[in-house]
Specification:
two-stranded parallel ribbon; unfolded protein binding; rod-shaped; mainly alpha; signal
């Protein structure tokens, strides 16, 4: 479940920190300039343009993400149930053959064993196809979540004048401290949920 957010946090955070460090270095006051240099950027103004979102909280409270998680879990459960049912039916056929094998002719045993081998191969293909289908669904769904988040954050950052929006997570030690005054998670979650609730189909409300 959290693989997407974990990967997202690592990629976004790593990139964001790299850009933020560059921006801080570029915007830092020039030590060789005079105190009256109007082009110097004060640390406070620079800091105000860098904010962060707690990805742990986002995954817990963003309704869209939770809906996708529930949807994917239901698909996984259904696939597991279907495969388990087919697997149990196959095991019953194997057990039945083992009971009757002694009374069967050599040709009958060979035909039955070939039939069971084909069914076993088919079960393997079904398992592989189901795994691939679920992986594709997960990638598609979480890509949509990622796009929704990044599109909103881009718009929000432009409106607020933020230069960088970083991600913070307790599971990602890249950031060991972040000033809570720079945390915009609550307003982001509220806005994302409001936007999602207005877009999702009426039958889901």
């Amino acid at each position: 479940m959290n693989r997407f957010l974990a990967n997202l946090s690592k990629v976004t955070l790593g990139l964001g920190l790299a850009m933020a460090v560059t921006a801080c270095n570029q915007n830092a006051p020039n030590t060789t300039s005079t105190k009256n240099d109007s082009t110097a950027v004060s640390p406070s103004k620079n800091q105000e343009k860098i904010v962060y979102v707690n990805s742990d909280t986002l995954s817990e409270k963003y309704v869209y993400f939770k809906d996708i998680k529930t949807k994917l879990e239901a698909k996984v459960k259904k696939a597991q149930t279907d495969l388990q049912s087919k697997g149990q039916a196959f095991q019953r056929e194997v057990a039945e053959y083992q009971q009757k094998a002694a009374t069967m002719s050599a040709s009958e045993r060979q035909a039955t064993e070939e039939k069971l081998a084909r069914k076993q191969d088919e079960l393997g293909r079904l398992d592989q196809n189901a795994s691939q289908s679920l992986a594709q669904d997960e990638a598609t769904e979480f890509n949509a979540v990622y796009n929704a988040i990044t599109e909103y954050l881009k718009k929000h950052a432009e409106e607020k004048g933020y230069q960088f929006v970083l991600t913070y997570s307790k599971t990602n030690p890249a950031v060991v401290y972040a000033d809570s005054k720079l945390d915009i998670t609550k307003e982001v979650v509220e806005a994302l949920n409001k936007e999602y609730n207005t877009k999702k189909p009426a039958d889901k409300k």
